């Protein structure tokens, strides 16, 4: 069900691409222009090897707009359709170019879902720096954020060993393709791997939140009516530890103060934010039904969301010390303490969710949603 949800968000144009980029040091023997063809061949071979490790990169999607979309196995992957090289002159700023191209990749859409797997690689190469950046961008129905890290790790391993996988790859007339297995072992959805227990109280709470009368919307002041869905494109670590939080918690605290200072009480009386959490830590390795499965090395959608609510009283306390001051000045000391307090609370909520494991998780409710 998680994959169907991500696909629905994509077809409704609420999601575009997801991206993880890594920079690689090019070995000296491949760092010159005359060796560029050899470098491309090795990278293509490493990409082919990584693809064969992950079945979710070997499939397309049919009936994407229906209530029952399905994976479809592809016969082969044409590397040239998925990998784009950009060779930069020495005079071009690498970081600025990377930022612009990454934004373009994330904002782009995936075409021909039925016959092309939803992922791509953008490779930036600059001879003078002996550096290569590989930006892996994919369609969220195929995999979650941690999957991008897994792919980059596998790709790095293949590049370091320079495995060419000649039996599985074919290069003819300038093209480079990967023959795919006929019966791939797609990662099972999380609801097939383990139980997702739901208490009656939790189910009632979720049902009320989704289907309760709109006339009672005033009881949920954190609903962001000031930020409706857009149907068009848009574009310290030690101190955290001392204050019993993490960088994740701190980001929530800082974002809350920043947004609250820019929106008035009437527009946004309260707020809600979310933390995505990797669920692989709860999944069994080598379960009886899927003896080949290693969740920590598997690309798939094994992610959930933890919500954090900040009520009107708290938001008013945040707005009070900054409402009458120049917003360009540093934050007052008492407001900084408030940031740390909020950050610690968020960290506590994350820890509580970790302790609960799979119990009362939104993913468990998704099996009840047919469309």
- Describe the sheet with the most strands: 4 strands, mixed
C-alpha geometry: globular
Number of strands: 11
Mean pLDDT: 86
Which features would summarize this protein structure in a list?
371 residues, alpha+beta, Chloramphenicol Acetyltransferase, 2 domains, 4-stranded mixed sheet, 3-stranded antiparallel sheet, 11 strands, 18% strand
Overview of this protein structure:
There is one protein chain. Helix content is 37%, strand content 18%. It is an alpha+beta fold. It has 2 domains: 2-179, Chloramphenicol Acetyltransferase; 190-366, no CATH class. Strand 6 (119-126) and strand 7 form a beta hairpin. Helix 2 (36-53) crosses helix 5 (145-161) and helix 9 crosses helix 11.
Strand-helix topology:
Layout: H1 2-11, E1 17-25, H2 36-53, E2 59-62, E3 70-73, E4 76-78, H3 79-82, E5 83-87, H4 94-107, E6 119-126, E7 131-139, H5 145-161, E8 169-172, E9 175-179, H6 190-193, H7 200-211, H8 237-242, H9 247-262, E10 271-278, E11 303-310, H10 312-319, H11 333-356, H12 362-366
Parallel strand pairs: 5-6
Antiparallel strand pairs: 1-7, 2-3, 4-9, 6-7, 8-9, 10-11
Helix pairs in contact: 2-5, 9-11
């Amino acid at each position: 069900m998680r994959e169907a949800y991500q696909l629905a968000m994509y077809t409704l144009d609420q999601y575009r691409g997801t991206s993880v980029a890594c920079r690689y040091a090019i070995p000296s023997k491949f760092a010159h222009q005359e060796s560029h063809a050899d470098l491309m061949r090795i990278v293509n071979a490493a990409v082919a090897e990584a693809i064969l490790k992950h079945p979710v990169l070997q499939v397309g999607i049919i009936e994407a707009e229906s209530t029952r979309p399905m994976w479809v196995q592809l016969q082969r992957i044409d590397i040239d359709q998925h990998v784009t090289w950009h060779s930069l002159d020495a005079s071009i700023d690498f970081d600025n170019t990377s930022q612009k191209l990454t934004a373009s990749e994330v904002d782009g859409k995936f075409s021909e879902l039925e016959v092309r797997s939803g992922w791509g690689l953008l490779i930036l190469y600059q001879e003078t720096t002996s550096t290569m950046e590989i930006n892996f961008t994919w369609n969220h129905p195929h995999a979650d954020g941690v999957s991008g890290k897994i792919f980059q790790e596998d790709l790095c391993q293949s590049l370091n060993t320079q495995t060419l996988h000649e039996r599985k790859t074919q290069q003819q007339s300038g093209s480079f393709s990967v023959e795919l297995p006929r019966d791939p072992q797609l990662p099972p959805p999380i609801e097939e791997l383990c139980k997702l227990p739901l208490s009656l109280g939790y189910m009632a709470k979720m049902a009320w939140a989704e289907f309760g009368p709109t006339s009672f919307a005033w009881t949920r002041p954190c609903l962001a009516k000031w930020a409706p869905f857009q149907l068009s494109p848009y574009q310290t670590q030690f101190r955290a530890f001392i204050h019993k939080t993490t960088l994740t918690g701190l980001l929530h605290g800082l974002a809350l103060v920043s947004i609250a200072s820019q929106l008035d009480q009437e527009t946004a009386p309260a707020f809600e934010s979310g933390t995505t959490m990797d669920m692989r830590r709860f999944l069994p390795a080598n379960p009886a039904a899927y003896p080949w499965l290693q969740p920590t090395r598997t690309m798939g959608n094994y992610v959930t969301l933890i919500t954090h609510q900040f009520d009107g009283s708290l938001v008013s306390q945040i707005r009070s010390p900054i409402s009458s001051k120049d917003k360009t000045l540093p934050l007052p000391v008492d407001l900084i303490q408030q940031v740390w307090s909020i950050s610690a609370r968020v960290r506590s909520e994350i820890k509580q969710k970790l302790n609960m494991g799979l119990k009362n998780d939104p993913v468990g409710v998704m099996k009840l949603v047919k469309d």
